[in-house]
């Protein structure tokens, strides 16, 4: 198969996947939504569970984390970059929900989609070839703030009760971190297995091209929803 056809096949497959899943990136099931709206008081454990569930099933978060750790071989580097992301999304998740800082959910999710494309493009050396120097740590922090605002925007749309709100927010945030640890463990484990095979060097480029395609597809889906609304 020629490189052009490979890119087309990868893009088409990811487009089909993301087009069907994009709407779920920050969505909440009707059962979870009804539960959140019925809570009037502290419910730490249920919100912890909801936070973990949201992260584990959040396609945009998972794709971005894959991009972040894709070429990180040392544990201290994984911890550093994931910590920057955690600081970012925890800050806007907690403060955004508590103070009612809102943003259009479609636009926030479009930026999150672009964050996935950004990381894939950076991983294949795209910015370096363009002569653009970006501090990756700062970029991960900024996109973490965007991811957290996406979470905050979704929580605000559920009309959570102010009674016990801080406890529930802390529980949800801790749950998100637990879910993130689960996702990272699986992603890093699979990447380590793949890195030990001859196919990694060549396949890594195609995997990051796939991330770029997925990111732009997610962004396009959200922008379509924004203009339609």
What is the topology?
Layout lengths: L2 H19 L8 H9 L5 H13 L2 H11 L5 H25 L5 H19 L2 H4 L6 H22 L7 H31 L4 H29 L1
Describe the sheet with the most strands: none
Total E-strand runs:
0
Which class of secondary structure composition applies to the elements? mainly alpha
Residue share in helices?
over 70%
Q: Write the element-wise H/E pattern from the N-terminal end onward.
A: HHHHHHHHHH
Number of domains: 1
Q: Outline, from the CA principal axes?
A: globular
Radius of gyration: 18 Å
Helical region count?
10
Characterization of the model:
By secondary structure, this protein is mainly alpha-helical. It has one domain. The protein is 79% helix and 0% strand. The protein is built from ten helices and no strands. It has helices at 3-21, 30-38, 44-56, 59-69, 75-99, 105-123, 126-129, 136-157, 165-195, 200-228. It starts with a helix and ends with a helix.
């Amino acid at each position: 198969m020629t490189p052009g056809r490979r890119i087309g096949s990868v893009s088409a497959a990811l487009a089909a996947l993301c087009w069907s899943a994009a709407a779920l990136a920050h969505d909440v099931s009707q059962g979870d939504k009804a539960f959140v709206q019925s809570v009037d008081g502290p419910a730490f454990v249920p919100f912890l569970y909801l936070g973990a569930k949201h992260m584990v099933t959040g396609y945009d978060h998972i794709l971005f984390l894959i991009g972040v750790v894709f070429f990180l071989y040392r544990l201290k580097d994984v911890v550093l970059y994931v910590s920057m992301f955690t600081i970012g999304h925890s800050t806007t998740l907690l403060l955004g929900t508590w103070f009612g800082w809102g943003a259009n959910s479609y636009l926030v999710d479009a930026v999150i989609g672009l964050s996935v494309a950004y990381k894939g493009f950076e991983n294949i050396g795209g910015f370096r070839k363009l002569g653009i120097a970006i501090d990756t740590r700062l970029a991960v922090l900024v996109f973490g703030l965007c991811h957290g605002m996406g979470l905050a925007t979704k929580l605000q749309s559920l009309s959570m009760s102010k009674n016990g709100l801080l406890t529930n927010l802390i529980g949800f945030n801790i749950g998100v971190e637990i879910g993130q640890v689960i996702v990272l463990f699986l992603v890093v484990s699979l990447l380590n297995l793949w890195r030990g095979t001859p196919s990694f060097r060549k396949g890594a480029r195609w995997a990051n091209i796939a991330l770029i395609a997925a990111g732009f597809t997610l962004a396009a889906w959200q922008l379509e929803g924004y203009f339609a609304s």
